[in-house]
Amino acid sequence: SLSDALNIGSRDPVYEVVEVSSKGTVSTRKVHRRHLLKSSGLRPRDIRSVDPSLWLTNTMPSLLVRENAILLNLGSLRAIAMQDSVFIFNYNRRGGKAFIDDLLPRLNPKSMIGGGVVMPFELEVVEAALHSRIQHFEHRLMDLDPHVQDLLKVLPNRLTAAILEQLRICKQTLVELGSKAGALKQMLLDILEDSQEIRRLCIVGRNCILGRNSDVECTVPLEKQIAEEEEEEIEMLLENYLHRCESCHNQAERLLDSAREMEDSIAVNLSSRRLQVSRFELLLQVGTFCLAVGALVSGIFGMNLRSYLEEHVFAFWLTTGGIIFGAIVAFFLTYSYLRAKKIL
Amino acid sequence: SLSDALNIGSRDPVYEVVEVSSKGTVSTRKVHRRHLLKSSGLRPRDIRSVDPSLWLTNTMPSLLVRENAILLNLGSLRAIAMQDSVFIFNYNRRGGKAFIDDLLPRLNPKSMIGGGVVMPFELEVVEAALHSRIQHFEHRLMDLDPHVQDLLKVLPNRLTAAILEQLRICKQTLVELGSKAGALKQMLLDILEDSQEIRRLCIVGRNCILGRNSDVECTVPLEKQIAEEEEEEIEMLLENYLHRCESCHNQAERLLDSAREMEDSIAVNLSSRRLQVSRFELLLQVGTFCLAVGALVSGIFGMNLRSYLEEHVFAFWLTTGGIIFGAIVAFFLTYSYLRAKKIL
Amino acid sequence: SLSDALNIGSRDPVYEVVEVSSKGTVSTRKVHRRHLLKSSGLRPRDIRSVDPSLWLTNTMPSLLVRENAILLNLGSLRAIAMQDSVFIFNYNRRGGKAFIDDLLPRLNPKSMIGGGVVMPFELEVVEAALHSRIQHFEHRLMDLDPHVQDLLKVLPNRLTAAILEQLRICKQTLVELGSKAGALKQMLLDILEDSQEIRRLCIVGRNCILGRNSDVECTVPLEKQIAEEEEEEIEMLLENYLHRCESCHNQAERLLDSAREMEDSIAVNLSSRRLQVSRFELLLQVGTFCLAVGALVSGIFGMNLRSYLEEHVFAFWLTTGGIIFGAIVAFFLTYSYLRAKKIL
Amino acid sequence: SLSDALNIGSRDPVYEVVEVSSKGTVSTRKVHRRHLLKSSGLRPRDIRSVDPSLWLTNTMPSLLVRENAILLNLGSLRAIAMQDSVFIFNYNRRGGKAFIDDLLPRLNPKSMIGGGVVMPFELEVVEAALHSRIQHFEHRLMDLDPHVQDLLKVLPNRLTAAILEQLRICKQTLVELGSKAGALKQMLLDILEDSQEIRRLCIVGRNCILGRNSDVECTVPLEKQIAEEEEEEIEMLLENYLHRCESCHNQAERLLDSAREMEDSIAVNLSSRRLQVSRFELLLQVGTFCLAVGALVSGIFGMNLRSYLEEHVFAFWLTTGGIIFGAIVAFFLTYSYLRAKKIL
Amino acid sequence: SLSDALNIGSRDPVYEVVEVSSKGTVSTRKVHRRHLLKSSGLRPRDIRSVDPSLWLTNTMPSLLVRENAILLNLGSLRAIAMQDSVFIFNYNRRGGKAFIDDLLPRLNPKSMIGGGVVMPFELEVVEAALHSRIQHFEHRLMDLDPHVQDLLKVLPNRLTAAILEQLRICKQTLVELGSKAGALKQMLLDILEDSQEIRRLCIVGRNCILGRNSDVECTVPLEKQIAEEEEEEIEMLLENYLHRCESCHNQAERLLDSAREMEDSIAVNLSSRRLQVSRFELLLQVGTFCLAVGALVSGIFGMNLRSYLEEHVFAFWLTTGGIIFGAIVAFFLTYSYLRAKKIL
Lengths: 344, 344, 344, 344, 344
Hints:
Radius of gyration of chain A: 37 Å
Strand order of the largest sheet of chain A: 2-1-6-5-4-3
Oligomer: homopentamer
Strand content of chain A: 5-15%
Largest sheet of chain A: 6 strands, antiparallel
Structural class of chain A: alpha+beta
């Protein structure tokens, strides 16, 4: 606690946030860090996880439940949900916008179909956040899947640079997507395994305390009952999102595995084709070498120097025949040598 | 709950399903989502896991047990089992057909051999679904196994493009098969580890409730006893399918590992053969270079320019000898240099 | 139960088995599946795990303890151990033969040294099966280990195709061996972790029942005591085989890792040698190119066309000098360019 | 205990340490090992983990809580925290300096904002150590992240040696960073899972004992209460640092994965481009071979030997036409052969 | 038990051992297996784990605690510790020698500094064994670490075969070291997790029994107290060695990871350099091809055949110009084609 004060307290940063009230009104505000801490009862180090200025080092998704507030950090969405309003930090980034689009209809009483039990505002916020995040994963995956499948079908026959580049980009996107979905899945698993955390989620903003032996103690007995009923509801809700998140994660991993295997196979394929090209090149070089020997002989006889063979009849035909015959014999000798050595 | 309504409730999709009643009659029906929810007592978000329109994002197999229905999502089979009938969603896909073929004989009382205890309809459905799914894996594996074994035997000696392509396709199939069998195995493990889930499976459609401390409480005492006896039966049944699924998974992984190792070895093999080809090419190029020096000399003497050597006796033989001797000496000098440097 | 009947019951396969009685007599028999089920009290689906006709899909080792029989599936050994005899299914395969060779001496009372407590027949069968299986692993490993060590020593200096092929074959064998030892290890671990399973193993063929809270209840109090004493004995026996199996598994993995690292290093080694060859080739091609320029010049002057330079004194020497000087200068310019660009 | 004495006791090394007292005074001292053991009540083998002379073999971070001292080994920071002072061993290395810079302001009562509860000195030391270490990770990651992102964007188009070298260096740094962050994360997890360890951390330097059943027993009842309150505080503090450490670890792994995938893709990319180059080379060599045949023919007719064709009219044109036509035909025959064989 | 007798009992091997008594006397002895079993109260199958003749199949380190003896198998050290003496099996191998060197000073009462509690002889043996083994790991790591660091610094710039070979050897050593340290770590973890095993270690050679509910029961009450005090001491001792062993393991893995990443990077580096070489080769071949066309033309005009152009003024200059111009134009056309196709 002291340390936080020392590190950050000297400066009092101002966050530009969008505030969505529980009645659905949206407004842009500037909040002083100091003020935020006071009003929400949070500790300085809690803020770290949603502070947009630290976005490089708090990339792990987190859902922190504190006494009067829930801190949400889901990728590009950073928000603090309180009893009556939610503060969204980097609301201009995709995550923030998708979240607001998802949250607003939930707050509109008209859109309720049937008189379902209304969830407390904080939980609506949490669900909207999870929903918008996972839907984002699903949409990206739905875009990627057919693209990757196409690539896998096309690739073995069309190994152009452009298609390899597309495969590379798909792989990078899948690595990123799989890693994000995996982190979110881990976060949901951690919450579900920690029954205290879920209970804390139930009593956020209520006059209840979580006792030593993780029993809920409320001032109003009715509230305790509601909290207990809500617990199961929240668990099923989180399990549902966990399952969707796992689906995304697995699908991304599966596509990535396929793409990796494909790349490995392509590498071997290219290697085998290069070997074929090299072997034909070698064949040609054997031929060229033999021709070069012949050319040297003919060049020697073409020198303006007297060999005193010039006048002999048939010298031309003998030499020519010798050159051609020698080149062909040399070629086939080398060729059969290379075959025997299994180089060709 | 509210959120589901908001997202999906505005439209009321109609599902085309095949209904198989517990008496074995098969009929095609159109079911309104709204109607389905009402009749089965399911929540909107439960339907997600079997909704065929979302097949890209709910690829993870799941078996959800609700109060009056069991939701099955096993790859291409999506079904809802209720007390008297089962709805199969994408019945035209392979999974749906195999399931119906597997289920129908079970419902035919004539085919019963010996008066074994008849399982409740829902459990017959679950078993038929698991059985048809795992048999599908086993059949694919039985097709693949000899093919891969053949490839592994043939490959080191016949590295043609066609055979490499076959290896690639086998690997892709194995990746997919292994991933699907692994997901199914995980699902079965999760159910087996969660004794509550198995108990819920026992009391589906019975007048029993699963109490707080996961004890079964029934209105009819006899039913409780049957449920308890069934519990063990279900566990053994699931364990049996788990074992078969694990067998498939392991076998697929083993074949995939073998294929991967083979590909790695082929890559090194090709690399070493390319080196051999390159080294012989180098040898030929050294030869060609030496011949080219000789050819240049002979070419120079072949120019129509006066060197005043033309008339010297033996100039021809001296030059010719010098060219040939020089080329051979240069070749062997370079050759021994390359040997010393271990390049050749 | 019903399902099994439906799937398999219509046909009644006949298994050819070797029966070894507890007195050591060996006989070949044909057993009807139906008869086998009746006499052993097994369920149809239990038989699956030892059915030799399904050997492709039940490759996972398993040791199933049922009321009156123990079903063994250890690779190529499939057997059912009952109170007085053991049925071995595919007795012609290596696993079955080794098992019989291991089992028979145990049944011969003469070979007992000191009056050690004689284990029940079923447990002797289980131990003989585990022993013959693990000894098989150990023998294969003892054959492979020196071979792999030799290869690893020889390889960096002798990268011939034959040696690479040997490395490949070793790797494939190690993958297979490691995977099989790993599966057996997992099976033993699973049994050791499940105290119920061990207790069931103790009371096989005795008039004892495993109660709800996994207490042993026997009709004869003495039997209970013996069973309890046996429990610890069995645990230590299984732990011993587990340790040997783990040793095999680890050793196989270690050798495989070494072989993989070796292959990776060879790939880089070959790559670096190919680069060296390529660089020398490039050097020669630069030389050949320069000679070709010279040859072209000399060829031009060798044309039977008049350049009117023919008669000029020193034209020959000037041109010759120019050709040689130009070729050398061009060579060194290119050479230093390539050095500067770090291509050579 | 005896062994330690035997191994190290004969020599009495002197450590040069920086001592920071709880009042904030910094002084350099030389401490005899023997004296240190006496004053701190530590055992010889405890010292091992912070002994700077063993820095190669105690690279694993550790936080050992002993009765009167806490031993800290966090990478390049080795320190012993006691009730009134902390000894920093290799204070000249980066870790030691960053730690002192982080610790000193915490000890300055003026810098306290608001009258927060002051933590005991040892805990301030632990927090300062963790904080300085994790901040070091975060800073390195913040430096690396944009650099790697830039590389990943630039790479596919600019495959120069310099950029590949940069990628290599980034990868090495990420491997190191990921491994260090992972080890620290594991250490924090181990502490958090071990409730005894945390309790021991609470009562360091107090007159309390940790009883058999891990209950805290204090001589002064008030101290027990404080210790219990502190426990939760420490847990939250450690969880906070764990979360930051996990963030670093995951981010480093993610970047490393991206870089690895990139390198794999580059390898395939390079392979495919080499194939293209080779194929064009092959094309040229086919051409050169055909020209060489022609050149040989023309060379043969250029020999100073009589072919008695010299005088024939059109012999020149016939031969020339034959050479050119033959070369072109040979080229296209070979070319179509290679296309049919899919080599070109 | 029976099985052991059957397999090994028929032969009675004689082991050559070094016996170190608790008073520090060292003597070489030959022990009959049968005698050893009798005197130590061990079972035949226990001996397996230390039998030097089986060193290929019992490579996993193990520490077996039996009633009157502790069996130690730590790599090349195989020993049986009894109440008054320890038998060392393959005492000529490095492990055995280091162990004796480590053990002897501990038995010398003079070397005790301060009157520390003397540990029982068996525990001194266990500690000496662990200490000598882990120190061996640490020394090898201290030798390897700077060597690998040097290689990693030198490598990117000096890719010679000798340095690659050194990297390969380092990797092989690290694989082996990491695997051995990992196995030892696992063994220590297993012991630490099994509180029964530690208790058994405490009461070795005492008149105590480990009861059913793993309580220690001694005939002399004092011994029970001592055993309980020792328990904590042993746990801390094992934890200390575990920590050192983990340090070694992690450091070896980290170095291996760095070396692997380095090798991957080198492969890409080599690949990119080969591409550069290939591209320059291609450039030269384009040039050579153009020159060859020119040379063919000049060769054609050099034939001793009449073209009737011989006498034309300017024919020479026209042809020469045509050849040179044509070659240059062809070169640049091909060059720009290759650039456009991104091959060059």
